[in-house]
Fold this protein.
Amino acid sequence: MSAPLAAPGAVAPLNAEAGRWSAGQAAVALAIAAFLLAFLIWPVLTVIRVAVTEPDGSLTLSHFGSFFQLSLMRESFANSLYVAGMTVVLATLIAVPLAYITVRFRFRGAILIQTLGVLPLIMPAFMGAAAMQLLFGRSGSVNQLLGQWFGFTLPIMEGLKGVIFVETLHYFPFILLNLSAALANIDSAMEESAQNLGASGWRLFRRIVFPLALPGYVAGASLVFIKVFDDLGTPLVLNVTNMLAPQAYLRVTSIGIEDPIGYVICFILVGFSIAAMAGSAAFLRGRDFATLQRGAAAAPRRDLRPWQAVLAYGWIVGVLLLVLSPHLGILMLSLSKVWSFTLVPEIWTLDNYSVVFRDSTRMITNTFLYCGLAALLDVVIGTAIAYLVLRTRVPGRQWLDHMATVALAMPGVVLGIGYLRTFRDTEIPFTGEALLGSWLIFVLAYTVRRLPYALRSCNAALQQVHLLGSWLIFVLAYTVRRLPYALRSCNAALQQVHLSLEEAAQNLGASRARAIWRVVVPLMAGGILAGFVTSFITAAVEISETILLTSRESLAPMSYGIYLYMQSIAGRGPGAALGVVAIVMVALGTYLSHRFVAARHAQQFMKGQRP
Amino acid sequence: MTTGTGAPVRVEARGVTLAFGASTVLRDIHVRIEPGEFFALLGPSGCGKSTLLRLIAGFNRAQRGGIFLDGVDISAVPPWERNVGMVFQSYALWPHMSVAENVAFGLEERRLPRQRVRTRVAEVLELVGLAEFGGRRPGQLSGGQQQRVALARTLAIEPRVLLLDEPLSNLDARLRHHMRRELLAMQRKLGITTIFVTHDQEEAMTTADRIAVMDQGVVQQVGSALELYDAPASRFVAEFVGTINLVPAGDPLFAALVAEPGGATHAAFRPHSVLLAQRPGDPTHHWMPARIAEREFLGEFIRYRLEAAGREFIADLPHALGSAGFAQGAGASLGIDRTQVRLLGA
């Protein structure tokens, strides 16, 4: 990496600007490209290939034909579309008022709303699903109450409705955060000039505020659609199998890895994911307004009138209760001996925890091993890609970024099946152990799928965006390719500033590699840590690819353990206990790194690093 | 080309006081802007000039006092019903609309028939010289063009008053001079009462009929550029409008310059009322020995920073072809023209 100017084989650069790349950098780029090709692109292409070829290798659409001949498949397809679409609609209904209230009104609950945004990261939807069944199911607490007091019940946990309900509560923060960022970044002059020209009230909202915030909404909504469309854990836990992802899983695990229908489903999942991402990207192109200019102010917050305050706080408390209910439910479940047909558990116990710590410590250590290693790999690769893209001129460097980002559109089910198919005969060099039968496969899968998150953080860190150092850094995980607008508008300037820090080090005698090590990496530390944590905690509660890749129980991580426990009534208690352990672990990690990032932020802010 | 349905209006602020929380931004402001006048609010940043402008537009509410158009209090009228057009500092062009859509916006809000909207949009775009640009997006225009669009968008609704918030601050120096003249020409042509906010005294002095100099939420002085320059009412105005030398009343030099001090606190004179020579000359001047501390060659003249009688002075001397002027560190005689000395602060 440190080879300065004339590297062998490289064209001698005319100046430092035009030739900021060396053989060392090219080698790193090639290594990363090879890794991504082998463990991301190739497995996915394999899945697609199997879906569109006969066993002899000739192209065919016959698998699609047999897919659509099966009524169960047609039904699953329709159901998946319906569930994803309805979830987007309901999540919108919850998120839009919340976003508007928090951005436009002086309001005491802002911290609550921020917290809402992080909750889904801490607890995956499938984990909450079991608890939601107990709380909102046919004989759950809420319906018990309703039945006793009012003589009717709400069948909100039945079948597809249950999936929609759980997914909505889990995923609406994606819309909330993206939309809030968009709203907060509308320059107040944009609205005032409209008022000045005669617009007010609903017309002002419809003609100015809504179109300007629309890109944020679309980004959030398309993410929700993809996430729900691809989700495997929630339907499985709720015992809903007539949807696409569960069908893919069931076909591959029950009929076999050769069954082409499973691959057709994967093809459809990937197709929709890519279409949704490409569609929203196309929509956002040219519309992705950064209206907040330097020195401009966001719209001032208004005071709530009394009746508005009642509505707003009512809405927020209501949403908060719903959002927290799975967490509360899991906690109660983990502390109960038996819990069924009663409002709250009748017998409280800590037995579940001792069961978990007796039987499942292996799973906990597995999680730390897999996710820790994967997160480490992610930030190393992420930092390298960010540096290559932003600081060097290695040809094709943008493709590393694009390739890594492909993982965002990759459903866990697809990657899992892709691994099973691609590496079924692969042995680890030297040991001769089957790759699929080793713990390495988890590390690889987690690394590849969480890489985009880590990459976002590292990118932001390299551009000094991590200086905002708050929960927002984790929000990067939701915002996919879009850094929050306001930040991006000043990125160019920040990038210049930061580049000069590095150049100053070189000017004082540090080689390029030394400058990176002594100046760039320390400055990026906060963002790198955020990337590590985001990668770690999202992998720790990952379920789709985990279910597929777990070949022996001794290899299973916690998320698999929770899923397994939840399969039986008797296992629910220990499953919940394991879930609580996972949540506490993840929450603690999030909190500590938040403290660390915030502390660094304060430190740098005081030193006046921020222009 | 018409603007406003009737004759130009008079704008008045009567006893306006406005505070944000504990900080008072405007204190008892009284200003009267005559119909058709091009009026500037001049002051350093944070002096309250933009707040006053936004108050006229209706985006702020005063705690006391009110804004009157032709004698009618409009304090309770919401911004969208005032018909007081404002051009924002950032232009605030909506990026999701084309230039023509931006300009049409206010007309559509007024429910004008489609055909009328179309002709009016073409009319004002023509007026600002952007007839060909209706289909573009604001992002595709240069800074100067964006500003014209913002102006066209505001003029389209035929506002009773035109408000300009730092209209030239986002343009580069050359364009700024050009737009300055263009704005003035436009205002003269339309005859619309215009108020603009600026921190640039040159901008205010070259364009405005009258200027209100503001500092710390208070109007320090209102007058034409000439009045402000020649007869500043306070030390702040004297120092903010142009460059000036000040001699406090206690100083021996004060007595030498001023025959009848009255209750003045300072004697003041401009740098160009000062002569520099090898030895004392013209007896109408007060002469004293000085040392050249610094010199700046500015083309038309050389600005000297001098030390004399234990004080610092600034002297601007015209530069003539071939003249080297006085060297830094050299001694010279400094002559102050007594007829050009004015008194500050009664």
